[in-house]
Amino acid sequence: MQTRQHLFLNSVWDDAPSGLNAGKCQLVLAFGSSESIVKPEVFQYLKASYPQADIVFSSTAGEIMNDSVYDHSVAATAVELEKNKVRCVKTNINQHNNSFEAGNFLMKQLAQDDLRCIFIISDGTFVNGSELVNGFNEANHLNVPVTGGLAGDADRFEKTFTGLNEIPSQGNVIAVGFYGSGLLVGHGSFGGWDEFGHERTITRSDKNVLYEIDHKNALDLYKQYLGDYVNELPGSALLFPLSIKINGSEENLVRTILSVNEEAKSMTFAGNLPEGSKVRLMKANFDKLIDASSIAATNSYSSIGSQHHEPDLAILVSCVGRKLILQERTDEEVIAAREVLGSKVTITGFYSYGEISPFSAESKCELHNQTMTITTLTEI
Fold first, then answer.
1. Structure confidence by residue, pLDDT tens digits, 22-54
2. Which of 56, 189, 234, 258 lies at 20 to 30 Å from 323 by C-alpha?
């Protein structure tokens, strides 16, 4: 596998040297700020540079390239596979009745015997991430790993943009299928947050909208814990996500609040919160958040059963909430992953509104919030 990276910053392209053959490049991943990723000149530059490649775009809450995190930029990574192949498909949420159907449709488009994994780039405002991954899972008869993330819009939560071979727009979901027996795919996801307070039960919800916990208004209960942060809702909610254990599951998911409705006394989350699920509040521990990146990287090796194959490419999808908390220490979680993955790996990625990954090699795909999620690709 050959890669080449480009950074568009302050309206100037910085192109890294590489042995990649631009005419044979199959895939370009372009992650950028909402205001940068939609500039026509960005699409035109990448299309002219890689005329045969599928170019996948996503807006972000921060761009990751190698050991650094950027804002107001576009981080583009071109990929040339030597022995294996890539196929990309796109749909728009408006073409389906719901997010489940969109995921189901895309999975069926990519399914074939030599499929090794799928990487999803989804709109982060109009798509229900939980329903989307449920749709992929329902049609994933080959049980291939499904990873990815929901597009971001800094900390504004207004508009996200995604696209395939076009200037990105709203509502799109892109799925990248990787095929071939000579491809090792690793994945890992970890949060590092501390739980606190009593375990409680969700008693009234509608998919990703929460109304009651323990038969009490959830928003009022939540505000009791926020203290001085209550006047900064919904942004301050990123600092206090919920840990949720869905009925029948042994694993805890993390859910982040996207918005609050004072009139309805409800909170809308990035993923579903089924009634009967157990929840606890969470808070940040800086060192544990950074350590979580190392754990996610280590788990990506565990998922392929080998630490003898240093990955060629690592795609890091972290959460906007982590970035807002870590602030000037944000680079540290990327460097922590690098220390595990090795010095030769090409690192790209972005800060998202939701991360997509299985818990382990044997488990189905899940939507996560407030995690570092890592997908690695290695040609052998």
1. 999 999 999 999 999 999 999 999 999 999 999
2. 56
* Distance (Å, whole) CA 130 – CA 125: 13
CB 159 within 8 A of CB 153: yes
Residue 332 corresponds to which tokens in the numbers above? 């540290």
Residue whose token pair is 């690098």: 338
Residues 49-52: contacts with CB within 8 Å, 24+ apart? 49/6, 49/22, 49/78, 50/22, 50/25, 50/78, 51/22, 51/23, 52/23, 52/24, 52/25, 52/26
Residue pLDDT, tens place only, 73-126 = 999 999 999 999 999 999 999 999 999 999 999 999 999 999 999 999 999 999
What is the pLDDT at residue 308? 65
Asked if 116 and 257 touch (Cβ cutoff 8 Å), the reply is: no
Tokens coding 220:
């009022």
- Give residue 371's pLDDT band: very low, low, confident or very high (50, 70, 90): very high
Q: Is the pLDDT of residue 305 over 80?
A: no
Measured CA distances, 213 to 197, 272, 277 (Å): 13, 14, 10
